[in-house]
Amino acid sequence: MKNLFLLFSQYLNLLSPSTTVHAENAKFPIVVNTWGFTNATVKAWDVINRQKKSAIDAIVEGCSVCEREQCDGTVGYGGSPNENGETCLDAFLMDGRTMNVGAVGSIRNIKDAIAVAKHVLLYTKHTMLVGEQATDFAVMMGFKKESLSTEKSKKIHSDWKSQNCQPNFWQNVLPSPEKHCGPYVPISEEFLTASRESHESLFASNNHDTIGMVAIDTSGDIAAGTSTNGANHKIPGRVGDSPIPGSGGYADNSVGAAAATGDGDILMRFLPSMLAVEFMRNGMSPDEAGRKAMERISRHYPKFVGGIVVIDKNGIYGAACHGIDYFPFSVYHPKLDGVKVEKRECTMSM
Fold it and tell me: Which residues does the annotation say bind substrate (predicted)?
């Protein structure tokens, strides 16, 4: 499977770089989301602006568009099958007014992942439900149970198997995961080797993209949300960064919000969305906060690939990225006649 991040970089070279955030023009309500997923932005804007609904509602309905449209094959059903050929979904929703969170991880056989996350937020005292039990909860809440596989996802899995299961996420096992499919057994601990670089290279050559969305409604309430089908060929049971509070997204009415995308297994080790919000709390602009959050990661993982969108409580927005040429994000606010896709030039490590 081709590197989706690099594909983004290729077509984005046709766009003119945006070096300034139109911060002074961006008052709420406002919607900002990762990538050029403009149909999701437009839907969220309609919900938050014309319908005067909450930021939570806008994010759920906006991200749901991507789930239905299978944005880039990396959101919603029919994409990124795991090693068993099954597509599972992660989603997250955070209310910046109450600091409450609803999330689902590796949910099976339910297409409406972010809507289920909203039900976790509204109807439970938990933060996250995962796996088959998350599916059971969704069915109890009235969601339809159905396969998330498609002919396309079945072919992706079949092609991967025919290529000796390359690439994959295993290490320190036998037979060699670089040449063979499983099942695997662990090697003796005395022979364990670190493989940070190979992990990073894997994502650099076979990545995925999350829709991460932040919004401020007409009441000034802030929310963040994410939805994804995760990493291609992941080990079954893997949960990425998207549903992890502070990693995939974070929102706080007193400061702002952020949402990140990229190599989830690395992202969740640094909680970049929370970092960006806290950097703003300490006086940084959204752009500066995003860059600082990316720098925190790239200092340890120079080949890391990812991006982040950031918004402060006044509707000033920014973005930052690392490891690709450009990072696009979609914006809709009252000063615009329609949705706008901006992009940021990314940092690169030598």
Answer: 238-241, 261-264
Single-letter amino acid code for the residue at 1:
M
- Would you give the DSSP letter of residue 211? E
Asked if residues 59 and 44 have their Cβ atoms less than 8 Å apart, the reply is yes
Map tokens 């209310």 to a residue: 95
The structure tokens listed for 135 are 């599916």
Q: 309: alpha, beta or left, given left = phi > 0 and alpha = psi -120 to 50? A: beta
234-268 burial code (b ≥16 CB/10 A, e <16):
beeebbbbbbbbbbbbbbbbebbbbbbbbbbbbbb
25-49 pLDDT, tens digit each: 457 899 999 999 999 999 999 999 9
For residue 226, what are the β-bridge partners? 92, 212
Of 10, 6, 21, 92, the closest CA to residue 329 belongs to 21
pLDDT single digits (tens) 42-74: 999 999 999 999 999 999 999 999 999 999 889
Residue from 340, 285, 327, 343 nearest 24 by CA: 285
Tell me if 261 is assigned to a ligand binding site. Answer: yes
Mind listing the pLDDT tens digit for each residue in 319-338?
999 999 999 999 999 999 99
8 A C-beta contact, residue 6 and residue 191: no
Helices first, then strands: H and E counts in the chain: 10, 14
Q: Is 241 annotated as a binding residue?
A: yes
Residue 330 near residue 41 (C-beta atoms within 8 A): yes
Give the catalytic positions in this structure.
Answer: 210
pTM for this entry: 0.89
Q: Is 159 part of any known ligand binding site? A: no
Q: Are strands 128-130 and 101-108 parallel, antiparallel or unpaired?
A: parallel
Averaged over 93-103, what is the pLDDT?
A: 99
Q: Which tokens is 99 given?
A: 């600091």
E-assigned strand segments in the chain: 30-34, 88-95, 101-108, 128-130, 173-174, 185-186, 211-216, 222-228, 249-252, 256-262, 306-312, 317-322, 326-332, 340-345
Tell me whether residue 248 is annotated as binding.
Answer: no
